[in-house]
């Protein structure tokens, strides 16, 4: 999919629409955070996401450059019709090495990425658009961080529960061992008492026989 995303027609179209591109590795931590918000099912794939965070379009697998350009134009047209916005807006796109994802505020994007891990390209219509874009990026980062913290809390709670269960099991095993040792000691005491009783009876019997003689 990199060949399509780096195609001159695709990059030119994205440039005209003022795109921002991010590239994430399919197995990277960033992709893991992203998939908590937008489940990644197929790799590679490209996500077109609106400013409000709702996905507009998702492409799965390899797409030819010409077909991909048509998808971008279709997404732009549909998004403009929904938002009733004529001028192009700045766009944020996320492109993964195996899971490519695009995020758009008015238009889709699939911009180039220079590294295998991540690359960010930001272009805006004016200086006033930059703060709005940065604000949207901050909101997205906050959501990802919230998801990460929530997942971390669940994992920590799971570890705490496992530790509690482990300690309880250890205590139960210790009680069982103590019970078994106590039972064994009691049985031994009963056996010794029985043997002493039998010996006493045997001596008494012998004594009585001797007295008869």
Question: Would you mind describing this structure in some detail?
Answer:
By secondary structure, the protein is mainly alpha-helical. The chain has a domain at 2-125. The chain has five helices and four strands, in the order ααβαββαβα. The strands form two sheets. Strands 1-4 form a two-stranded parallel ribbon. A two-stranded antiparallel sheet has the order 2-3. A hairpin with a 5-residue loop joins strand 2 and strand 3. It is rod-shaped, with a radius of gyration of 37 Å. Mean pLDDT is 71; it is low at 85-130.
Give the helix level as a range of percent: 55-70%
Spans of at least 5 consecutive residues with low confidence: 85-130
Give the beta-strand count: 4
Main sheet characteristics: 2 strands, parallel
Query: What structural category characterises the helix and strand content?
Result: mainly alpha
- The number of helical segments is 5
Straight-line distance between termini: 114 Å
Output the radius of gyration.
37 Å
Proportion of beta-strand residues? 5-15%
- Overall 3D geometry? rod-shaped
Element order, helices and strands?
Answer: HHEHEEHEH
Mean pLDDT: 71
**Spatial strand sequence of the major β-sheet:** 1-4
């Amino acid at each position: 999919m990199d060949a399509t995303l780096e195609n001159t027609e695709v990059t030119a179209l994205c440039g005209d629409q003022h795109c921002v591109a991010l590239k994430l590795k399919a197995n990277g931590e960033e992709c893991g955070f992203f998939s908590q918000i937008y489940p990644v099912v197929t790799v590679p794939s490209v996500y077109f996401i609106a400013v409000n965070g709702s996905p507009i379009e998702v492409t799965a697998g390899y797409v030819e450059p010409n077909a991909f350009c048509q998808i971008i134009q279709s997404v732009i047209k549909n998004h403009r019709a929904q938002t009733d916005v004529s001028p192009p807006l700045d766009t944020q796109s996320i492109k993964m090495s195996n899971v490519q994802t695009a995020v758009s505020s008015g238009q889709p994007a699939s911009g180039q990425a220079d590294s295998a891990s991540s690359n960010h390209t930001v272009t805006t219509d004016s200086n006033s658009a930059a703060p709005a874009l940065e604000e949207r990026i901050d909101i997205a980062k906050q959501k990802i961080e919230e998801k990460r913290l929530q997942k971390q809390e669940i994992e920590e709670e799971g570890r705490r529960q496992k530790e509690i269960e482990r300690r309880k099991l250890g205590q139960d095993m210790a009680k069982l061992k103590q019970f078994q040792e106590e039972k064994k000691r009691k049985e031994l005491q009963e056996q010794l008492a029985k043997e002493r009783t039998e010996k006493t009876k045997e001596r008494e019997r012998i004594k009585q026989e001797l007295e008869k003689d």
